[in-house]
Amino acid sequence: MRYAHLLPLAMLCLASPAFAHAFLERASPPVGSEIPVPPAAVTITFTEGVEPDFSTIEVQNAQGTRVDKADPHLVGGEQTKLAVDLPKLPPGQYTVIWHATSVDTHKTEGRFTFSVSP
Amino acid sequence: MTRFTTPAALAAAASLIASPAFAHGFAGPHLFVSTLIIDDPNVADEASLPTLSWQPQPNDGGPTMNLYAAQFEFDKRITENFGFGINDGYDWLTQPGNKTANGWENLSVTLKYKPYVSAEHEFMLSVGVVENFGRTGANGTNGATLGNDDSSSTVPTIYFGKGFGDLPIGWARAFAITGEFGYQIANTKLKVIDSAGDYNNGTWNQWTGGLSLQYSIRYLSAQVKDYGLPEFINRLTPLVEVSWSSPASRPNQGSTQYLIAPGINYTATDYAWGIEALIPGNKQTGSHVGVIAQFHLYFDDLFPHTLGKPIVEWW
Q1: How far is Cα B249 from Cα B303, in angstroms, rounded to an integer?
Q2: What pairs with residue B267 in β-bridges?
Q3: CB B287 within 8 A of CB B58
Q4: Which of A14, A76, B111, B268 has the fewest Cβ atoms within 10 angstroms?
Q5: What local confidence, expressed as pLDDT, does residue B16 receive?
Q6: What is the mean pLDDT of residues B168-177?
Q7: Percentage of chain B modeled with pLDDT above 70
Q8: Cα gap A116→A89, rounded to integer Å
Q9: Residues B212-236: tens digit of each pLDDT
């Protein structure tokens, strides 16, 4: 039992290629930003590829009403960039709620706000 | 060569960093990073390979003894929320003018169950039991010098983690606190066995515990406000850990000890490293600052289809 710590080394030689949890790396509009022009979409760049069929982005206004077009999709075929289109948003604060399933099925989630200035 | 005289505090001082099962986990968007001197609340597929430390030991006026340790850990999920961890390590205890004592630490095995996670409130609760197996490492005089207990002990432990995402103050939401509280039950109680005042090979009961306060820059950038920091900075989590132990039965040869460990953690997608200072919290813990560093592997990210998933899902 004393040499049980060698097991991981042995498994390293047998295991499959690496993927990982998908963290939010960047967002457009940026996390916590105030922008003068309403964005046409919210785009999140993840640290790992995500499965668009099992990943969501939802945008809510200050009253908690969903305002996005509910069409999460990859941007330019890049598996690390997930977007959802928006109608023309009036000024106000918006909350982005996202759930991502990475290509190796790990799940992550988060939320952030941005504001459209008058 | 003269042999070391074993300070009574040594075993307890070393044990402040000897038995954690380091892991990581999410509670909602908050990631509790791998901690170095206490265990974290998650059940996971991970390894710390290795954890290296240097810790000057308390002395009674003689030359300072230095304890160097190379520790290893392997954590494995059996089901989604239940798993085990195995800890061991190799120690070297040096003192000018004396022969170096070296040998394996006693083996520790942790069983842990995570019954509750609140994503909304970034809270995680786990319960576990740690078994420290006496005489599985160096024993006899050498083992005593290194602080290895000659008999086993059992430590029922409760673990928790709480992100501060509920707070209305934006920058403060990136804080999180994790902790563990346990009661170490000696399997063989220490007692006087003859009229000369000699003791048996037992140990004594102890309260043990620890806390960590973490500040996740990734959480700040991804949840609160993106300051355009480089990705390297976003992966950093400054933190401070505190661990303590206190005798809870008599007779005992221990004392209440505190260890404070401020440092930094870097968490990438499938590995992490951390380095912390080891600051004695009182004279019984030591008088000099040491250091601890760890390289940590996330098997659930590295090998999601094999080693990184629960054993019950292998077939």
Answers
A1: 45
A2: B272
A3: yes
A4: A76
A5: 61
A6: 96
A7: 92
A8: 8
A9: 999 999 999 999 999 999 999 999 9
**How is residue B291 written in tokens?**
């250091």
- Quick check: B295 and B271 in contact, CB under 8 A? yes
Distance, in Å, from the CA atom of B263 to the CA atom of B292, rounded to the nearest integer, reads: 9
Residue type, B49: L
Q: Given its phi and psi angles, is residue B262 left (phi above 0), alpha (psi -120 to 50 degrees) or beta?
A: beta
Residue B315 corresponds to which tokens in the numbers above? 């077939």
B101-104 and A24-28 beta bridge pairing: unpaired
Q: Is A34 within 8 Å of chain B by CB?
A: no
**Mean pLDDT score of chain B, rounded to an integer?**
89
DSSP assignment, residue B107?
P
- Cis link prior to B251 (omega < 30° from 0)? yes
- Pull the structure tokens for residue B284: 């019984």
Q: Please name the residue of chain B whose CA is at the shortest distance from the CA of residue A98.
A: B29
Asked if residue B44 lies in contact with residue B32, where contact means CB atoms within 8 angstroms, the answer is no
Is the predicted pLDDT of residue B295 greater than 70, yes or no? yes
User: Is the pLDDT confidence value at B95 over 90?
Assistant: no
- For A7, B4, B205, the CA distances from B58, given in Å and listed in that order, are 35, 13, 22
Single-letter residue type at B121: H
- Whether B127 shows a pLDDT value over 60: the answer reads yes
On whether any CB of chain B is under 8 Å from the CB of A51, the answer is no
DSSP for residue B162: E
Residues contacting residue B315 through CB under 8 Å, at least 6 positions apart: none
Point out the residue among A11, A20, A27 whose CB comes nearest to the CB of B270: A20
User: Testing the interface with B: which of A11, A98, A115 to mutate, by most B Cβ within 10 A?
Assistant: A11
Q: Collapsing DSSP states into helix, strand and coil, what is residue A110?
A: strand
Say yes or no to pLDDT of B315 above 80. Answer: yes
- Residue B211 Cα to chain centre, angstroms: 11
In the numeric block, which tokens belong to residue B19?
């038995």
Measured CA to CA, the distance from residue A32 to residue A34 in angstroms comes to: 7
Average pLDDT over residues A45-52: 93
Q: Which residues, other chains included, contact A76 with Cβ-Cβ below 8 Å and sequence gap of 6+?
A: none
Q: Kindly report the nearest CA distance between residue A81 and chain B, in angstroms.
A: 15
pLDDT band at B145; cut points 50, 70, 90: confident
The structure tokens 């207990």 sit at: B149
| ipTM confidence | 0.83
| Model confidence at B67: pLDDT above 80 | yes
CB contact under 8 A, B302 and A15: yes
Residue-level pLDDT at A2: 44
